[in-house]
Amino acid sequence: xxxxxxxxxxxxxxxxxxxxxxxxxxxxxxxxxxxxxxxxxxxxxxxxxxxxxxxxxxxxxxxxxxxxxxxxxxxxxxxxxxxxxxxxxxxxxxxxxxxxxxxxxxxxxxxxxxxxxxxxxxxxxxxxxxxxxxxxxxxxxxxxxxxxxxxxxxxxxxxxxxxxx
Length: 165
Description:
It is a single chain. By secondary structure, this protein is α+β, with helices and mostly antiparallel strands. The protein folds into 2 domains: 48 residues, no CATH class; 94 residues, no CATH class. Helix content is 26%, strand content 19%. The protein has 5 helices and 7 strands. Strands 4-5-3-6-7 form a 5-stranded antiparallel β-sheet. Strands 1-2 form a two-stranded antiparallel sheet.
């Protein structure tokens, strides 16, 4: 909403009430700190929804769905060795972990995963040493500056290659 009198762009009004928290009728109200955090998150929405340069949709083809245009390939060996950790991290961070079933054989065996949102695909690509796909070729974009990291797993055992045998 554009506030003509002040000349500023206002996205939302977030109401809070600190003094009402002491009483039973104020339990459902936001505190000023909660309202401030929500306001900061709303202000960052355009940043999260902005397309990142270099991270393009895969393109047209028989295996590509228009509602999931971003594809990331993981090395099959890495996927098998770290399956439990990848699955747990994706669940913890609400990242979709949808395999297309496509297998690419270039310098090893790669399994393809698809994403609806570009930021989900970028976070997955960055954390799990994936390859960005553009058509049927690997694409090597630069890591974006100030890219947030995924929430880490607590008390997760370190990878031991002897456990894979």
